[in-house]
Amino acid sequence: MVELHTNATLEKDLDSIFTSIQEASLKIYTILQKSLGEYTQNTNATGDTQLQADVQADLILQEAFKNIPCVQQICSEEQEKSILLHKEGLYSIAYDPLDGSSLMGANLSVGSIFGIYQGDFLPQNLVASAYVVYGMVVGIGFASLLKEGVEYFAYDGKEFHLQKCLRLLEKGKLNATGGTQKNWDKAHKENIESLFNAGYRLRYSGGMVPDLHHILVKGGGLFSYPATSDAPKGKLRMLFEVFPFAFIFKRAGGKAVSIQQTQEEKIVTPLLTLTPKHLHDTTPCFFGSNWEIDFVSK
Ligand code: P6P
Questions:
Q1: Residue 223 scores a pLDDT above 60
Q2: Could you tell me if the CB of 207 is within 6 A of ligand 1?
Q3: Which pLDDT does position 12 carry in this prediction?
Q4: Are residues 76 and 136 in the same domain?
Q5: Residue 229 scores a pLDDT above 90
Q6: Is 99 in the pocket of ligand 1 (CB under 6 A)?
Q7: Which of 61, 75, 158, 208 has the fewest CB atoms below 10 angstroms from its CB?
């Protein structure tokens, strides 16, 4: 557990970071409204081909965080290495500037994801997380150690208004199933099928942010991106995607685990206890209400 500076310091610092994310999200939304999802010739550290919007969103966020003295370093999914901003700063911010940008061509919702760490990029150092969903409106989910629940804000054209505090029920109804089904292992296939046979509804757009936000807004269910034969370590990135949403799901009253299935046993690990070896490490990940996470962990 991080040795927290006084809550007053943390609250002031998180306010400046959150305000900066709000302002940057509106600039990114403006770009999205003018973009048709054009690709660049470049690839990012994970090998994804970058869209022009990916690069522009990353630059907007770099500029935004440069103006916040309490931010020591940032690490973007679009950058190979972390970037030092203010030596005396307390916080490290890992972010995915435009997650699911390949969906832009189909005019589907995309998002930005932020993990705010006090100290190094380790899950136990997370003090807050945020996500932005660019849909009909710009919506922002925000959670911190300072309060329970996930506060959801929406932009009305003039300012962001708090809409609701998102909390997960013990058990939900939605089932968001990531990864190529033919590459799932037998145990995962059986669990997913069992949930559908019990009446769960498939809700999967291929965008992590809208898919997880959907489960939070509807009060529960399961999002899974398992280890697959083509991606044994999963696809989603620990620092920028998995840890921030694991923090959010826990603050919403749910759970978040990794599951590795071997011939002999099933190894279930709480996501926020994992230790990344590299900035761009991935992990299989399951986020959801307590009942669903306990069900897949059995
Ligand atoms: P698949 C988008 O590319 C992304 O990184 C996440 O937003 C999303 O959850 C996942 O990949 C979708 O991957 O293999 O199911 O298309």
A1: yes
A2: yes
A3: 95
A4: yes
A5: yes
A6: yes
A7: 158
